[in-house]
UniProtKB/TrEMBL annotation:
Pfam families: AAA_19, RecD_N, UvrD_C_2
Gene Ontology BP terms: double-strand break repair via homologous recombination
GO cellular component labels: exodeoxyribonuclease V complex
Name under which the protein is recorded: RecBCD enzyme subunit RecD
Domain UvrD-like helicase C-terminal: 672-718
Reaction equations catalysed: ATP + H2O = ADP + phosphate + H(+)
UniProt record similarity statement: Belongs to the RecD family.
EC category: isomerase
Source organism phylogeny: Bacteria, Pseudomonadati, Pseudomonadota, Gammaproteobacteria, Pseudomonadales
Region Disordered, annotated ranges: 1-36
EC code: 5.6.2.3
Length: 746
């Protein structure tokens, strides 16, 4: 038997799912030898390479997990009689390191061409401290010794690596090195999409009755327009395919479009002899509780405005759900397990699944969705392709939308769309060589939330197209737009801190060219920009007491939570004076000094908290926001009522209920006067203030700045520690290594 043939038995253990105890045992088995002195030393033996990995880990360059993964590969190779090359151990650690940074794999050629940039090693220090010189050999020093062929040879000769056809812990596929688990996720996602795209549709022939029903329904749902109606085109495309993506910037009508789409599909189902007029079972989901709650808020109104009576198929309001659940709840997550209740052998009972804010879904969760979805079900992803990618590995929506701007619809698709919608796709979006995946992606191109002259819209566009210039920023400073302001940092750090404090307190309406007054949208007056004193005043100015009813407290909590959502400080970093930790502390101290909160540490009345991990027992999801109240519900030993702290959370089921939770029961949370842009995904605020530091860091990218700006519904303020850093951030783009797009487009 050849070495490779025996793989399945040898490596039946999936290393990335290995229990911690095994990892620790492997770790303890390692020898340690003297520190390496140059880039050649780690290649003189396994112990030397492992010692370097330990030093990298101690320096904070790689995670303990990365080092342990490399050691486990070494142990497993040795157990099979292979003496692994130090280069193999190094590549294993680097592949694991890249997963920790959101990549699905490592492109070997890119790694060799640009090791420092690809790996972001050595890491830059947190803003404010500057990079420290280090005597450690860097990955770039090490990789400079090798050509791609050397890496391929070492990987191909190892029992720990295969092309995926065998159960090895590492997979080398088309020049990409994967941890096996991530390779499998990518495979499963691509397979599921391809399988859905290959299924013929009843709607393929516009002349057949189903096509005619769809045409009629679209005619009722969309008013005729002088220009191409991209929402109508998106509905038609998504109705035809069992897999579809609808992408668009803020306010381009993703929710409106999907509601129309679901109504149109129910009309088709209601007239379909094959379905015997049985309507589709539809579920709506979002990756976080916050995103689910936001869709909950907007979808009910959109459904109630549907012209149902005019549609064929006897579509009723109840045929279109308005309750949105989190993906974890939908799939049935179980405490302390990464396995969901719904999977291939216990699929979801659903005909159409819509996932909003799909940019936040990582490869692991997306693969679980694909597994749990019956092969015949429609999957519709909604999201903004230009937003930040998921926190965990992958950039699934970004990859699926990578050709969305130019569309690449085939002439056949363009003809079909014209027959169904009456709209002709512009020639620039038609491509004879368009591929099946292109035909399932629709991009909404017109914003209905922002007017043409909106500063938020123009700033977001300039960032997205990398055309943000100093004169745009100067224009913001001069008050060229009445919905955006740029607040100038002071000459000293104290001045800047004072500016941030003033702004966080009041929202600085005077800094906007119209003094924050008089803005209207679609004839509706918009509330002016506010800061945190707005919700804290509301908390203080009430006349509830121990005799008040629970309902009255619930009502107050709803008002306070809504007022808190009127303003949010966002930042790029976690640590340092410009990060969440520094800003939370700064703002809390200012509010204490103003008598708006009693103290700045621990638990106190008015403390806003962000849940940072799912807690199924309490029914709280990552991203939920609560506000701490002091309630007269406690009791002294003598029976007298006393104040007790409770955190008010809005129920995540769209019921408008309030849950009061004791602080001692809350485990994963942080104060949220400041929030990272990453955590703000899926949320929107009436007034958003984005604070960017005075030093560039790898996390500061175009996607981050764009996501920060587009969290603002009506007012946006910017505090940039250094304009050059802002411009440089916009020039930096997130590119996550993955092979998904290559699997879907040949
Ligand atoms: N075709 C349209 N004509 C007029 N108004 C529209 C149209 N489509 C959407 N709108 C309005 O634009 C606003 C934003 O629409 P919608 O909520 O559907 O967009 P979205 O892309 O889902 O927004 P978000 O950025 O919050 O995800 C809503 O007030 C909606 O009623």
């Amino acid at each position: 038997m050849s070495r490779k043939q025996n793989h399945d038995q040898q490596f039946s253990l999936d290393l990335n799912e290995a229990p911690a105890s095994e990892v620790q045992q492997a770790s303890r088995a390692a020898d340690v030898s003297p520190a390496p002195v140059d880039a050649a030393t780690p290649f003189s033996g396994l112990a030397q390479m492992e010692e370097l990995l330990t030093q990298w880990q101690e320096a904070g360059w790689v995670r303990p997990l990365d080092r342990e993964f490399a050691r486990l590969i070494r142990t497993l190779c040795q157990e099979q009689g292979e003496q692994p090359e130090p280069l193999l151990i190094l590549l294993a650690a680097l592949a694991s390191h890249q997963v920790g940074r959101g990549h699905v794999c490592v492109h070997l050629n890119t790694l060799l061409e640009e090791p420092a940039r690809t790996l972001a090693l050595p890491p830059e220090e947190a803003a404010g401290t500057g990079p420290e010189p280090t005597p450690l050999p860097t990955p770039a020093d090490l990789m400079a010794r090798f050509a791609p062929e050397d890496c391929y040879q070492v990987l191909e000769n190892s029992l720990a690596v295969s092309d995926g056809s065998q159960s090895t812990p590492l997979v080398l596929d088309s020049g990409r090195l994967y941890l096996r688990r991530f390779w499998r996720y990518e495979q499963r996602i691509a397979e599921s999409i391809r399988q859905r795209l290959e299924q013929p549709s009843d709607l393929d022939d516009p002349a057949l009755p189903q096509g005619e029903t769809l045409r009629q329904a679209l005619g009722e749902l969309f008013r005729p327009q002088p220009e191409v109606d991209y929402q109508k085109l998106a509905c038609a495309l998504a109705a035809r395919n069992r897999f579809a993506v609808i992408t668009g910037g803020p306010g381009t009508g993703k929710t409106t479009t999907v509601v129309n789409l679901l109504a149109a599909l129910q009309a088709v189902a209601g007239t379909s002899p094959q379905r015997q007029a049985r309507k589709y079972r539809i579920r709506l989901a979002a990756p976080t509780g916050k995103a689910a709650a936001r869709l909950n808020e907007s979808i009910g109104g959109a459904v109630s405005r549907l012209p149902l009576a005019a549609l064929p198929g006897n579509v009723q309001q109840a045929d279109i759900p308005t309750r949105v659940t989190t993906l974890h709840r939908l799939l049935g997550s179980r405490p302390d397990s990464r396995q969901f209740r719904h999977h291939r052998d216990n699929p979801l009972l659903v005909d159409i699944l819509v996932i909003d804010e799909a940019s936040m879904v990582d490869v692991d969760l997306m693969a679980s969705v694909m597994d749990a979805l019956p092969a015949s079900a429609h999957l519709i992803l909604l999201g903004d392709k230009d937003q930040l990618a998921s926190v965990d590995a992958g950039a699934v929506l970004g990859e699926l939308c990578r050709r969305a701007l130019a569309a690449h619809y085939t002439p056949e698709t363009a003809e079909w769309l014209a027959a169904l919608t009456g709209d002709r796709v512009p020639e620039t979006l038609v491509d004879n060589a368009g591929q099946p995946m292109d035909q399932a992606v629709a991009m909404l191109r017109k914003s209905y939330r922002f007017t043409e002259d909106s500063g938020i819209r123009q700033l977001a566009q300039a960032v997205n197209s990398n055309t943000l210039h100093r004169n745009t920023l100067a224009g913001l400073g001069r008050g060229e737009f009445n919905d955006v302001t740029m607040l100038p940092c002071g000459p000293t750090p104290e001045d800047t801190r004072a500016l941030i404090c003033r702004h966080a307190l009041t929202g600085s309406p005077e800094a906007f060219s119209n003094q924050g007054l008089g803005r209207t949208l679609n004839g509706q007056a918009l509330p002016p920009p506010v800061g945190y004193q707005h919700y804290l005043n509301l908390m203080q100015d009430h006349d509830l007491d121990a005799d008040s009813l629970r309902e009255d407290w619930d009502q107050l909590a709803r008002q306070v939570l809504s007022a808190f959502g009127d303003f949010q400080v966002l930042c790029a970093l976690r640590q340092g004076p410009w990060g969440v930790e520094g800003l939370n502390d700064l703002i809390a101290r200012e509010l204490t000094a103003r008598g708006l909160i009693p103290k700045a540490e621990g638990w106190y009345r008015g403390r806003p908290v962000l849940v940072t991990g799912n807690d199924y027992n309490l029914g709280l999801m990552n991203g939920d926001i609560g506000i701490t109240f002091s309630l007269p519900w406690g009791q002294h030993e003598n029976g007298q009522p006393c104040e007790t702290l409770r955190v008010a959370f809005p129920a995540s089921d769209g019921s408008n209920d309030i849950r009061w939770i004791s602080p001692s029961r809350l485990q994963h949370l942080e104060t949220v006067f400041a929030m990272t842009v990453h955590k703000s995904q899926g949320s929107e605020f009436n007034h958003t203030c984005l604070i960017l530091p005075d030093r560039l860091s790898p996390v500061m990218t175009r996607e981050l700045v764009y996501t920060g700006i587009t969290r603002a519904r009506n007012w946006f303020s910017l505090i940039a520690g250094d304009e050059t850093v802002l411009l440089e951030s916009v020039a930096q783009q997130v590119v996550r290594a993955s092979g998904l797009a290559e699997r879907l487009w040949c």
